[in-house]
Amino acid sequence: EAQVTQNPRYLITVTGKKLTVTCSQNMNHEYMSWYRQDPGLGLRQIYYSMNVEVTDKGDVPEGYKVSRKEKRNFPLILESPSPNQTSLYFCASRRGAYGYTFGSGTRLTVV
Amino acid sequence: AQSVTQPDIHITVSEGASLELRCNYSYGATPYLFWYVQSPGQGLQLLLKYFSGDTLVQGIKGFEAEFKRSQSSFNLRKPSVHWSDAAEYFCAVGLSNSGGSNYKLTFGKGTLLTVNP
């Protein structure tokens, strides 16, 4: 089944403890992206990648890192999480100009 | 900067009634246009998209949308709503400097649809 897989689905962590949210797609898509969703703010793009080793900042990149060493994987790294990064995170991928396929989301709570 | 406006935060309709969700964008060029739906606790699913050509596009689940260049709008419609359509709907706009597929996708803040029996 064609899909975008994120792990974990739920995560509670403490301030300052580094974490990684994994994202993998099995559709050979060139483009991948991370969004965060917050009530009243909709979805905002954190980072996106046009292909292997090519990434760029979205609208809210502060406090996040990404890497794209393989086409299928696009992990999101929080080096020192803070409570304002508590959010629902979505990874997505697409081929060419077509619409994104989204993962099921990762609900992160930073205490 | 590009922006997407969904004027209605919450809409309530009765089952069987028609539906129109509004979306406006601000940018000089014609962008790629999308509608997504998010059911509670789920990710986003693509309903339909517009790139060029016929301004009335058909999507999944009986939805359609019409692009109106003069109004910078891309409203989503459904003739008869089902209870299972209750969800949050997001309009999204993709703009590319080069005209190709390297576009940045910006979302509206969403419209929550409630369906009364």
Descriptive overview:
The complex is a heterodimer of chains A (111) and B (117). With 111 residues, chain A is mostly beta strands. Chain A has no helices and 11 strands. In chain A, strands 2, 4, 5, 6, 9, 10 and 11 form a 7-stranded mixed beta sheet that branches. In chain A, strands 1-3-8-7 form a 4-stranded antiparallel beta sheet, with no helix packed on it. Chain A starts with a strand and ends with a strand. Helices cover 0% and strands 52% of the residues of chain B. Chain B contains no helices and 12 strands. In chain B, the strands form 3 sheets. In chain B, strands 2, 5, 6, 10, 11 and 12 form a 6-stranded mixed beta sheet that branches. A 4-stranded antiparallel beta sheet of chain B has the order 3-9-8-7, with no helix packed on it. Chain B is globular. Chains A and B meet through strand 4, strand 5 and strand 10 of A and strand 5, strand 6 and strand 11 of B.
Chain-wise SSE layout:
The complex is a heterodimer of chains A (111) and B (117).
Chain A: E1 4-7, E2 10-13, E3 19-25, E4 31-38, E5 42-51, E6 54-57, E7 65-66, E8 76-78, E9 87-94, E10 101-102, E11 106-110
Parallel strand pairs in A: 2-11
Antiparallel strand pairs in A: 1-3, 3-8, 4-5, 4-9, 5-6, 7-8, 9-10, 9-11
Chain B: E1 3-5, E2 10-14, E3 19-21, E4 24-26, E5 32-38, E6 44-50, E7 56-58, E8 64-68, E9 73-78, E10 87-95, E11 104-107, E12 111-116
Parallel strand pairs in B: 2-12
Antiparallel strand pairs in B: 1-4, 3-9, 5-6, 5-10, 7-8, 8-9, 10-11, 10-12
